[in-house]
Design goal:
324 residues; mainly beta; two-stranded antiparallel sheet; 6 helices
Amino acid sequence: MATVFKSLANGDISKTRSLLNEAIPITGSVVSGTYSGSNIKNYTHGMFQSVYDYPYASSSANHIFDLTYGYSSALSSSLNAMNAKKMNMYNQMAQVLVGYDQNGSIKRFDRDGDFTVTTDAMDACVFINYSRLLTKDEVRKQTYFLQLISGSDVMTISDYGANREYRINSPAGEFGILYTASSPIVTGSGVGLIYYQAGIVVLSASALIFDSFADFTGSDITGTADNVRSSWFNNDFQNTTELNSTIYFCRAAASEFNYSSNQTYLSSSEIIVKGGDPSTEPCAYITSIGLYGKNNELMAVAKLSEPIKKDPSTELIFRVRLDY
């Protein structure tokens, strides 16, 4: 009778983890509004702006990132445009990315990533929230570059040295400090933060060269987003997709799987592949392998590129890889 099921031992199962990276370029021509601004979506609430790679009304458009601006209560003023909304935006981002202190107060963003002190606090920030379509599971450390331009001046911002110097004291996961090319990895000289798993970049408004800090507070959020986009020269990074795999080594010993349970395997109680010769060894052709659960429910099927002959004179090992 055909052998249908065979249990896998612990030694037959192996698990691996691999990281796949993809380069993501975001040019200034797209961000500044290549399609006469039709790829830039503004909202009636005015709290953020969305950037697409194509006119956003088209089904072919892909969301690239959202852009917004906010400041802490330390800069609150009724004279500022959209004062309450800017504070709400800052607090919302800070709650998610920085968290709360022991007194239940929202922590402020900090240039050096030490949120326990406020001497280097970033009280006014531009937030770039990248689409999950681009960042996948996370942004790869030490691959982020952003260039902002104003006239002949170019500011290059990157997470220099983040492979060795990233932080973990955030409820949103790992993050690194962003520096300029003129002063990379100098303590206290950070101009922003990048949260790798969240896919969010936080830039200190006072460190940006394309506009004055006063104009940030005086203009609405949409106007600030327009200023950032008009100064956008180049941006690229690598994303990361975590691929977990379970590898099953399916072993067919010499005495196993030499018959088939297929009804066409027999004709008048004779094995067809023997060709009418009783002395011929039986054989079967393996075309697929099924993986079953504890209750014999089929969980996955692996198909072979071509049938493999199996008879009592051969032993086979099939390597089945399940990715998730």
